[in-house]
Design brief:
The complex is a heterotetramer of chains A (61), B (246), C (87) and D (150).
Chain A lengths: L1 H26 L5 H25 L4
Helix pairs in contact in A: 1-2
Chain B lengths: L2 H24 L10 H12 L5 H9 L1 H21 L6 E3 L9 H23 L8 H12 L1 H5 L2 H7 L2 H24 L24 H29 E3 L4
Antiparallel strand pairs in B: 1-2
Chain C lengths: L3 H19 L3 H21 L3 H37 L1
Helix pairs in contact in C: 1-2, 2-3
Classes of the chains: A mainly alpha (61), B mainly alpha (246), C mainly alpha (87), D mainly alpha (150).
Keywords (chain B): Cell membrane, Membrane, Transmembrane, Transmembrane helix
Pfam families (chain B): MnhB
Family (chain B): Belongs to the CPA3 antiporters (TC 2.A.63) subunit B family.
Chain lengths: 61, 246, 87, 150
């Protein structure tokens, strides 16, 4: 049960991360290594915020 | 002063200002002319330092000291707000009731929050390449977090936004700007002189020497400052009640 | 003819700024101010100053309305509170 | 002056003109609707301007407006929820017309740009714009049923 929740959480963050990296690649004009690095970091921040936001919005009852 | 005298004072002052403005307008160069002495020099200086967006070069290289002044104004303004809007002795905190938001609004907020955050970071990171920069991107990133208040409620926003961390981030990034300025002095140049780092390849993220670093510092400063400012406003509007508690 | 779009943007800014001053209710003023922000962003864009336009969009479309509306809410709550305690 | 700037001038003149009239007069509900429409009408204008000046980096302005404009409307929908609950402003005809304008402009610009990453960027702007506006319309007519306090 514990591993299952961890796996789900990691999967959620990874899915958001991949989607946001794709978004970053669509926003920029030319692609090179540094752009990948910065984009991956920014997408990481966004993915963590997405998960934190979804957890915070589910009201603890 | 009676209202009549006040009116005369306004008419006199306004009339004088209008006359001066009209006189100044008559001496202005024509709209859209080909003569741009400042623009030509600024573009030349920007290109010499491999910066694609001349505005970023003006803000963070040629006029980096002015930007430090603007950053200080924002910092002082937010500090003033924090002091003014603190919880007074005759006030108490009354946590707001959780509120009901329609499901599509909540889903929209949860989806757009990361998108807006990444877009804000994109605008910060590409400040010296395309329109944008630290200020614009920082405001977008900070606004993105407040989608939690709009799409859920204040308690949800507080759960993802530790205000203390943003206060520390505000101070740290403001001092990072100063440290970068003094690094120029230590390296034998002037305060905030852009002679520290190689200028890099034109039109890439690493071009422009210290410009991307100063840009990132401003982005973090503005984002933290806006979050702290809105936190004080939200506290006052939603939580803090008059009377010392019942 | 090429300046027609500049004229349109200038007229919109002038009209919206006048409307913002002419309204007396802060909530309605905030609404006009939000639209004025987008009109100013258009004006800066057609004058080839997209950096300033972006600043205006970032600040004017969501941040300023939020600050004004939160202040309005605080003032309204305070006056409602005052009425309650008098009764 | 090319056709793109002419089209942008027409869109902006009609858009800013109608929203000026809508936001400055009438009941509160109509003003919020007009504020929402201003995003939906100005954003296509900015896209056309970026094509007219032939500067792809100006698309960032439209992107930011498409992201933050609906957020601004949500601010009003949330903090004026009590007043709007009485009026229940609905203007689905206008909203869908504005959304249609945004979709048409994005489709035309996509056809001109041709396949590539910049086309996807235009599609992202279009999706954010249309989705955001429809959602904001939904939010102002009963999107916040229980926010009397907080």
């Amino acid at each position: 049960m514990k591993t299952r929740t961890t796996l789900l959480a990691v999967g959620e963050v990874l899915a958001w991360w991949a989607a946001l990296v794709v978004l970053w690649l669509m926003l920029i004009s030319t692609v090179y290594t540094l752009e990948w690095v910065v984009g991956a970091c920014a997408a990481g921040v966004g993915a963590l915020a997405a998960r934190a936001g979804r957890r915070a919005a589910v009201r603890p009852r | 002063m009676n209202p009549r005298a006040r009116l005369w004072l306004v008419v006199l002052g306004g009339g004088g200002l209008a006359a001066l403005l009209v006189a100044a307008c008559l001496r202005l160069p024509a709209f859209g002319g080909p003569w741009h002495p400042y623009g030509d020099r600024a573009v030349r200086a920007a290109l010499a330092r491999h910066i694609a967006n001349t505005i970023a070069s003006v803000n963070f290289d040629q006029r980096a000291f002015d930007t430090m002044g603007e950053m200080t104004i924002l910092f002082a303004a937010v500090l003033g707000c924090v002091v003014l809007l603190r919880q007074a002795r005759d006030e108490h905190r009354d946590p707001p009731e959780p509120c009901e938001v329609a499901a599509p609004v909540r889903r929209y907020a949860l989806v757009v929050l990361p998108i807006a955050l990444v877009t804000g970071l994109y605008v910060i990171a590409h400040g010296q390449l395309s329109p944008g920069g630290g200020f614009q991107g920082g405001v977008v990133a900070a606004t993105a977090l407040h989608l939690m208040y709009l799409g859920a409620d204040y308690a949800a926003l507080e759960r993802i936004r530790p205000v203390e961390a943003f206060e520390i981030g505000d101070a740290l990034s403001a001092s990072a700007y100063l440290v970068l300025g003094f690094a120029g002095v230590l390296a034998g140049g002037a305060f905030l002189a852009n002679t520290l780092l190689p200028y890099g390849t034109f039109n890439t993220l690493s071009s422009g020497g210290t410009v991307p670093l100063l840009n990132a510092a401003i982005g973090m400063e503005v984002a933290s400052a806006v979050v702290v400012l809105l936190a004080r406003f939200l506290d006052q509007a939603v939580e803090i009640e008059e009377g010392s508690g019942s | 003819m090429a300046d027609a779009v500049v004229v349109v943007a200038l007229l919109a800014v002038a009209g919206l700024a006048t409307a913002a001053v002419a309204n007396r209710d802060p909530a309605r003023q905030a609404l006009v101010l939000a639209v004025l922000g987008t009109a100013l962003a258009v004006l800066f864009t057609v004058l080839q100053a997209p950096d300033v336009g972006l600043s205006q969009l970032a600040v004017g479309s969501a941040l300023t309305p939020l600050l004004i509306m939160l202040s309005v809410r605080k003032v309204r709550r305070r006056s409602a509170h005052g009425k309650d305690s008098k009764q | 002056m090319n056709g793109w700037i002419l089209a942008a001038t027409v869109v902006l003149a009609v858009g800013l003109g109608t929203t000026l009239w809508g936001v400055a007069t009438g009941p509160l509900g109509r003003r919020v609707v007009a504020q929402n429409l201003s995003t939906a009408l100005v954003c296509p204008g900015l896209l056309l301007l970026s094509q007219g000046y032939d500067r792809t980096s100006y698309v960032d302005l439209a992107l930011l407006l498409a992201l933050l404009g609906p957020v601004g409307t949500l601010v009003f929908a949330r903090l004026l929820a009590d007043e709007l609950a009485e009026e229940q402003p609905r203007a689905w005809g206008l909203t869908w017309a504005a959304a249609g304008l945004g979709a048409v402009v994005v489709a035309v610009l996509c056809a001109v740009t041709g396949p590539g990453r910049s086309m996807v960027k235009l599609l992202i702007v279009g999706a954010l714009l249309v989705g955001g506006n429809l959602l904001a319309s939904r939010a102002m007519s009963g999107g916040f049923p229980g926010v009397s306090r907080g």
